[in-house]
Amino acid sequence: MMDIDDAISNGASQSRIIGQKVLRPRQQVEELLRKAILSGQVRATERLPAETELARQFSVSRPTIREALSALESQGLIFKVPGAGGGSFVQTVDHHALGQVVQESMHNLLSLGSVSFAEVSMVRQYLEVPAVALAAINRTDDDLEELDTIMEEQRTRSVDDPMIADLDARFHIAIARMSGNRILASLVYALHSESEPVSYLDLSPDVGRETFAQHRSIVKAIAAGDPLAGEVAIAEHLTYLREHLKAREEAQRV
């Protein structure tokens, strides 16, 4: 015969789990708005109701609504427009938005020292090598024309021109886009924005000529439709930049 203690123990082990974590009002509002956005109930570029209306619908205070909206904005799901005709609008959740969100998160991690510049640069190389290979396969005549335009601008500018860093970013991001893989392109955009060595390098004329020659080798491989040559060229280029930056940092510590 089962005694009382056994009965209690057996009943506890067979009890149904019906509870779940109770969310705070701000978390509940955030979660419900996120579901509305991701399910398509509220569409891209559509303006959300005003804070006062959302507070009425959710039966919470305006500060609670404001906190929930700020959380959604930090996640890249909405964006805010100031002014009389402004408000909170649903972000177009595509690869561009993904790149921006990743770039902002990476910026915060680097600023806090949670990850190192070297770590970001290494991951960037692992992504850009296949990106160049895919660009060699998928590039169009218009893509090659775009690269030629960027290269011509780079050729005619001195190493101390403030546009050099922007042109370098355009070069690498354009190639990633030519890969045809939008997720890969968005990640290269994010990592390049936060690990742009040209912004930190002491660009001498010799370094400028060498990096330009490396860019030319990359473009030549893409134009020839040679993915293997493209992989070799981009790997040599990124390794050169990373080692040059490392040498400069070590010299500054001496």
Keywords:
254 residues
How many β strands by DSSP? Answer: 2
The radius of gyration computed from the alpha-carbon positions, rounded to a whole number of angstroms, is 26 Å
Provide the succession of SSEs. HHHHEEHHHHHHH
Count of individual helical segments: 11
Helix content: 55-70%
- Mean pLDDT, all residues: 84
Strand order of the largest sheet: 1-2
In the predicted model, the low-confidence regions spanning at least 5 consecutive residues are none
Name the overall outline: elongated
Terminus-to-terminus distance: 82 Å
Largest sheet: 2 strands, antiparallel
Strand content: under 5%
Q: Classify the secondary structure makeup into a structural class.
A: mainly alpha
Can you describe this structure in just a few lines?
This protein has 254 residues and is mainly α. It is built from eleven helices and two strands.
